[in-house]
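Convert to structure. Protein one:
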Amino acid sequence: MWKQQVSLEEFTAKHAQTLPGLLGIQLSEIGPDFARATMPVDSRHIQPFGLLHGGCSVVLAETLGSYCSLMCVEPGKACVGIEINASHLAAVQVGDLVEAVCRPIRIGRTLHVWQIELCRSDGVLSCVARLTTTIQDRRDG
């Protein structure tokens, strides 16, 4: 399934000064048909009621899904998110660690659709997201 490999270290370095890096998102595993990432929940991630902000869940889902999409295309191609939706199912408290697992729903020539499930550290499903990416020729510069 994967046409390009991304090491965990490359992922971390690429995102060090971008939103995923600033939120502490870490790629933790790439399996034969899935990828896994984690995000801690601390003061950077909460809404006014002290719970994980839903936007942070969406950032985690889109980051992981976009990387999966990129690993499924030939070099020279770019993957751009065109739609994401998320259902927030359970609250996540400060101090928890959210784990996301991404699997393909469809990998087409010009569109990819991914399902990303986020769980709290106790295994409770906290969010389900679906990401659609479009595949384009890369435009560097």
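Protein two, convert as well:
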Amino acid sequence: MNKASMTLCGLTALILAGCATPYDTDKSSFWSFGKGFEVSNLSSDTWQISFVGNEYTDRTKARNYLLHKAAELAQNAGYPYFMLRGEQNYRDQTGTSGFGTSSHDFLYGVGNITSETTVMVEAIGLKEKPQNSTLPVYESGFILQNIQVKS
């Protein structure tokens, strides 16, 4: 590989690394590197949703992704409303990566601490809006129209 090709590959990697995790990323995909959505059906009206974003995905963006995904699931299953139960939203440092080399009694190393944002929740689809709910109730259609996510 010549120097120009190596430079182009390096610049491409930097550009891709500088982007937040997109909404349509599936965590089980090889190319997602463990980032994106994972959805588990717990029953016909309940889903466990988790999203892991890279260091460029802040908590607000991750929560908007989660709200939008819950609204999609509820609406696609015929539920005009949904509730979120047990929401967790946190940012973790995931460790270091780097390399080192030594030459003539000299040790040189480079490391990096990365962070990721994780949100998890149980979403419950509802046919009707309950009058006395202890949890906030969201309208699926309203969320889909007003919480914008860019893919």
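The CA atoms of residues 57 and 87 lie 18 Å apart. The first helix runs from residue 3 to 17.
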